Amino acid sequence: MVLGSSGTSADDVLAVARGAARVELAPEALAEIAASRAVVDALAAKPEPVYGVSTGFGALAVMHISPELRAQLQRSIVRSHAAGMGPRVEREVVRALMFLRLKTLASGRTGVRPLVAETMAAILNAGITPVVHEYGSLGCSGDLAPLSHCALTLMGEGEAEGPDGVVRPSAELLAEAGIAPVELREKEGLALLNGTDGMLGMLLMACADLAGLYTAADITAALSLEALLGTDRVLAPELHAIRPHPGQAASAENMRRVLAGSGLTGHHQDEAPRVQDAYSIRCAPQVAGAGRDTLAHALLVAERELAAAVDNPVVLPDGRVESNGNFHGAPVAYVLDFLAIAAADLGSIAERRTDRLLDKNRSHGLPPFLADDPGVDSGLMIAQYTQAALVGENKRLAVPASADSIPSSAMQEDHVSMGWSAARKLRQAVDNLGRVLAVELVAATRAIELREQSSPVLTAAPATRAVVEAARAAGVEGPGRDRFLAPDLAAAERFVRSGALVAAAESVTGPLA
């Protein structure tokens, strides 16, 4: 992964955060870094105070710092700001955080020395991951405490996780990797802390995960429609063309392709005639499609943020060093919260379909709770309880973090974004959504097999049959007497989250949106 003038993509971030992609600094990036450092060095030599170079920070920005104390000033800001608490943050989040901060350093707008950027790249490449804690960022001025814990490792202080997964003193890990700790100079401590990198990294990973889950949700919705003998006529392209939301059309087309060739759809006029299916079936493309469009908007914001150089003060191309407010996380925080709302609603409609499959009064002939011997067996009754608990949790997680603000730094930083908190709760919401869809998958595949067992006429679509067979091969058991259900649900979650569900459907349909 070469950081330079070509820019950084979401795929680059994922490759470094979740994989072992190596990072290099292009010659032009090193030249830009050196040029901006020359500007900072020139300012440091002047008597006029410059924020972050020859002054304190935050509410202490009025304090002038003499040259002999400026190295101590940079060490002090890192040590004092590394004040996180709570559980450790996931390795992939920390790697994304560091890579995105390195991306900004490579822009040549921060005024650090090339040595600082090169050392950060070396730490990433060595598989050393600083210990970062859950709490400590208000999303303004950027993700201060999380980035400070990363900068502490750069200095050879604090703790980090080695490539073997063991947490040890950072100094030991750096020494084993042949990396010399950095002695920070003017502006460099501040430059390592002032960014929206944590919330942006989590946004990019959430977008990648949600893209897969939205396709998975279209598939599970199609299976539920089939199992409930619903009509696929509501998926006709001409119906979605007259309400031209692109996400809606994509979801409807996914469902239509999954259901192609089904012998289960269209039986809504048989024994218990229905003019229309319930909203959770009929409106599946509208709800999932709205989420897809929300995701597209979030990706647009993420792409803009990826193109940004977030620091304060910033070194401009004309050599000016200017204070600014670009570290405020509002743009990222808003879309993080928006995605949490969309994830909650997608899970909510999936749970309603599951409940309909289990209710003998609304399932159009399926046994109560899809049980083998209802009364003796409880079937999937409590699986729906688990699903409902997850949906309830996601509704709570959908409450916006960005609507809150707590003043800090003696009222100098009197409005903050809470973007880090928005990102942390979105990660939980995404995990919960995967589990919700897994329960729908378990119910829908069991219901489809029960339908097929009841009549030779009721045959599933080829894509559905591929999904059922792949799920069974992955350890998701089908109909039968009650058994220990948690392993089935765990296998279904892995099947959904790994992309195996989508791959199974696409083996028949071809690529889905």
Task: Write up this protein.
The protein is mainly alpha-helical and 513 residues long. The chain has two domains: 2-195, Fumarase/aspartase (N-terminal domain) (Fumarase C, Chain B, domain 1, Orthogonal Bundle); 202-309 and 322-405 and 417-509, Fumarase C, Chain A, domain 2, CATH 1.20.200. The chain is built from 19 helices and nine strands. The protein has a three-stranded antiparallel beta sheet. The chain has a two-stranded parallel sheet with strand order 1-2. Strands 3-5 form a two-stranded antiparallel sheet. α4 (91-105) packs across α9, α9 runs parallel beside α14 (330-358) and α9 runs parallel beside α16 (419-454). The longest helix has 36 residues, at 419-454. The mean pLDDT is 95. This is Histidine ammonia-lyase.
Brief summary:
This protein has 513 residues and is mainly alpha-helical. It has 19 helices and nine strands. Helix 4 packs antiparallel against helix 5, helix 9 packs across helix 11 and helix 13 packs antiparallel against helix 14.
Write the layout of secondary structure elements.
Blueprint: E1 2-3, H1 10-18, E2 24-25, H2 27-44, H3 70-81, E3 85-88, H4 91-105, H5 114-125, E4 129-130, E5 133-135, H6 144-154, E6 159-161, E7 167-169, H7 170-177, H8 188-193, H9 197-227, H10 237-241, H11 246-259, H12 279-282, H13 284-306, E8 314-315, E9 321-322, H14 330-358, H15 381-397, H16 419-454, H17 462-473, H18 486-497, H19 500-509
Parallel strand pairs: 1-2
Antiparallel strand pairs: 3-5, 4-6, 6-7, 8-9
